[in-house]
Write a structure and sequence with these properties.
Elements: E1 29-30, H1 33-43, E2 47-52, H2 57-68, H3 73-78, E3 81-86, E4 90-93, E5 96-99, E6 114-119, E7 131-137, H4 146-154, E8 162-163, H5 166-176, E9 179-185, H6 191-198, H7 204-210, E10 214-219, E11 223-226, E12 229-232, E13 247-252, E14 264-269, H8 278-285, H9 292-302, E15 314-315, H10 317-333, H11 341-351, E16 357-364, H12 371-383, H13 386-393, E17 398-405, E18 411-419
Parallel strand pairs: 1-3, 2-3, 8-10, 9-10, 15-17
Antiparallel strand pairs: 2-6, 4-5, 6-7, 9-13, 11-12, 13-14, 16-18, 17-18
Helix pairs in contact: 7-8, 9-12
């Protein structure tokens, strides 16, 4: 989100308000950008900006019918400051006139008609206040994002409780049967940790996802009592894939009875000394229940720039076990391949609902890569094969992914899908 500098703004080009299309008398619409911005800031309200083609009454009628008439939307808009502007509306910035829609803050609209919401209601949140909280292109026949608009207008800060004691946090997670997320942070002056905290961890949607977890924040050199003495937590074998670095780890205390209950099921160190983005944090927090290797490979698929759809279905336990078994076999013989696929194909098909057919992809990492790097490399290898990528990128009702390490230092990955 980009901050809007209210103090730099002068009036929108005058003369349009009188000719602006009618939106009814249910909502008071400003016709001047700077005046509306000042009113929203003074009253501590959300600023709703409708960018409308000049004189386009059908566009405004559709907005009134599809947005204003939606349940509870009228009340939300009455509690906000609303302004309607033509697409060519201009502001004066440092003595120079520029189109409002040229501002990077509104890039999500792409210069098209639509709605933008600036958060001037949550002054106590410096990562949100004065920033564009959402942009929603609107057009005839396009899906109408009414629910998303409502969610932005309803947003209130989520208060997160970060534990500082490992013992207390694990006890809380066990009692509440929740996942325990541990943020291993670098010293305060570390730019990577500062970037993660000021961007991804401060994002409203990420905060809502974090609220589902028990949260623990520890320095990278934090120690715990173990075996009659104190040891650095990151030197414990369970956290080996954190590589002794700052980052995010997750322990599963939510799925009692699962084989991975009480295990570290996510290990996301800061690779290449880079913080996780808001999008990457969202993926981490939405990973399905599973083992460390399963979840890491699923993460690598989901963050690929082309957004493969193979993990949009359901992670099926039977397919996950088949993927685990074949990954283990490849690692044991130290050879990648679809070994005995003809026999396995018929066995896997018998596990699927009628009409669905099994597909498989395999890959291997470079020698010596650690888990997260290896998972990203295996997805990259799939991208280089049209046959494999066709299966990875396609949506499937059911899927399973896993990867295992051979004694040659190479990780072997398998994905198995049930689809049409």
């Amino acid at each position: 989100m980009l901050r809007i500098l209210c103090v730099m703004l002068a009036c929108v080009s005058a003369g349009w308000l009188a000719a602006a299309p009618a939106l009814g008398d249910q909502i008071s619409w400003y016709g001047d950008y700077a005046t509306a911005m000042r009113a929203a800031e003074q009253q501590g309200k959300m600023l709703v900006i409708l960018f409308c083609p000049a004189g386009d009454q059908p566009f405004c009628d559709e907005f009134a019918e599809r947005t204003v008439a939606a349940p509870k939307m009228l009340e939300r808009l009455r509690n906000a400051i609303c302004v309607i502007l033509p697409l060519n509306a201009k502001i004066t910035v440092k003595g120079k006139q520029e189109p409002v829609l040229n501002s990077p803050a509104y890039a999500g609209l792409g210069g098209r008609p639509g709605l933008a919401i600036v958060d001037l209601a949550n002054k106590e949140n410096p990562n949100r206040f004065g920033r564009v909280a959402g942009t929603f292109p609107l057009g005839k026949g396009s899906p109408h994002p009414t629910d998303k608009i409502g969610a932005v207008l309803d947003w209130r800060p989520v208060k997160l409780n970060w534990h500082v004691s490992y013992a207390e946090a694990t006890d809380t997670a066990q009692r509440q049967q929740k996942m325990l997320l541990i943020y291993f942070c670098a010293p305060r002056d570390n730019p990577v940790s500062k970037a993660l905290e000021s961007e991804a961890l401060a994002d409203a949607q990420v905060a809502e996802k974090l609220s589902r977890y028990v949260l623990l924040k520890l320095p990278v050199d934090a120690k715990i009592e173990a075996q009659g003495g104190k040891i650095e937590l990151l030197k414990h074998g369970a956290f080996a894939e954190m590589l002794g670095q700052p980052g995010i780890a997750v322990i599963d205390f939510a799925h009692k009875g699962a084989g991975y209950y009480g295990d570290v099921v996510s290990a996301f160190p800061f690779l290449d000394n880079a913080p996780y983005t808001t999008e990457q944090m969202g993926v981490i927090l939405d990973l399905p229940p599973g083992t460390l290797t399963q979840r890491t490979l699923i993460y690598a698929v989901r963050v690929h720039p082309e957004r493969p759809a193979s993990t949009q279905g359901r992670l099926d336990n039977s397919l996950a076990r088949e993927a685990e078994s074949h990954a283990e076999y490849q690692a044991r013989i130290r050879l990648q391949g679809h070994h005995f696929w003809e026999n396995r194909f018929h066995r896997i098909n018998a596990l699927l609902p009628g009409g669905l057919t099994a597909k498989e992809v395999c890959a291997e990492s470079w020698p010596g890569q650690r888990l997260l790097q290896a998972a990203i490399e295996c997805v990259r290898c799939w991208r280089l094969s049209s046959g494999h990528w066709g299966a990875v990128v396609a949506p499937h009702p059911y899927y399973g992914y896993d990867m295992k390490l051979g004694d040659n230092g190479i990780w072997y990955a398998t994905g198995i899908f049930g689809g049409n």
